[in-house]
Amino acid sequence: MTGRRRHGRTTNRPRPKAAKTLIMITAIGAAAVGCGTGAEQPGGATTLVLAATAVATEQRPTLTSTARAAVASALGTDRARLRIVISGADRPRVLEDGELRLRRGARVEHDTARRAELTSGEVRRIESVLAEAASQAPRLDLAGLLDVIARTPGPGTAVVISSGLQTSGPLAIAALGWDRVGSAEVVDQAKRDGLVPDLSGKRVVLSGIGEVNRPQEALPPPLRDRLAQMWLRFCQAGGGDCSIDSEPVVGGEPKSTTPVPTVPVPQLPAITTPAAASPVELPSDILFGPDSADLLPEAEPLLAQVAKALPAGSQVHLIGRTASVGPPESARALSSRRASAVRDGLTAQGVPALSLSVEGLGYDRPLVADRDAAGALIPAAAQRNRSVELVVARP
């Protein structure tokens, strides 16, 4: 006797193309994460949807504790349906679609101990199905999947597990640049463009944001937080009751082998030699929030390393730069404020204020050209220009 569903299951049912490209677990119905009763189907049944993109740059799909609770809660209703969806190269595939009930033969199991045993077994079975899923999708589209959630009839709960590194459309992270990720302006523009789905009546938990797999470079904590805030704003802009699940998603190597575009990630430089050896570029995308000149908490240990590496008596010129975006005057002002913030941070680390000078160039003298022949922004080059450069002169 098992807890597997045998009734009403269908396979390989296509879903809208917007669903491809996101590792996601959607629970519509059951009181997942304490969110209520979920979407009602005819006859009072609820539906639990588990969907995964399983792309090559993300962790292999697995159930978080939140998702396990959603499965157990749905099983506890004795009137739920389960749908497992995996994204594909062309369109999503429905791996399972049928009743989700704990049965003893043809009858619903009522013994408490046996129900607990069957529930654990069913959770493990679902985890194994997800672990073997390989989407072979060539891109990641979290925005498209949120649209699929929005189109699900009735109120419900969705637990979404995704790295959030969108690689398609206007919200592609590489095209936005990390200084704009998390900016309210990005979400506002997406809403004006009609890209934000109507999530009214939906409870959405965003989980696994920023969790990646090689060849995608890992994200430092400030960028993970910034990415999570962007998707939280995006979800809330659609009227959803949205929150961030901080539990890590660690499923191991993905089954999918289709290459997916990677997103350039600025890395904090390791300063272990005297800074006078060559100019040091401190990436603004990590030191500051979007459109902000306030140092993030993570900047303090880096500036402590810089201060320790500076030769005694040296003079340091701090040059702020930005990517070639927006009015030149605004770019100069922002870059100057950021260079000044780094100066103040170094002073707090014991560097004499008189040894530090500041200049804000905006994008007047970029480190590298960040526009191509057609005038389009080159993401990797723009990312490098968003920096505060330290030019050190020995006494």
Radius of gyration: 25 Å
Largest sheet: number of strands, sense, barrel closure: 4 strands, mixed
**Mean pLDDT over the full residue set:** 83
Number of strands: 13
Helix content: 25-40%
As residue ranges, the low-confidence spans are 1-39
Based on helices, strands and strand pairing, what is the structural class?
Answer: alpha/beta
Question: What overall form do the CA principal axes indicate?
Answer: elongated
N-to-C order of helices and strands: EEHEEEEHHEHHEHEEHHEHEHE
State which percent range the strand residues make up: 15-25%
Number of helices: 10
The neighbouring-strand order within the major sheet is: 1-2-3-4
**Structurally, how many domains make up the residues?**
2
The end-to-end distance, rounded to whole angstroms, is: 81 Å
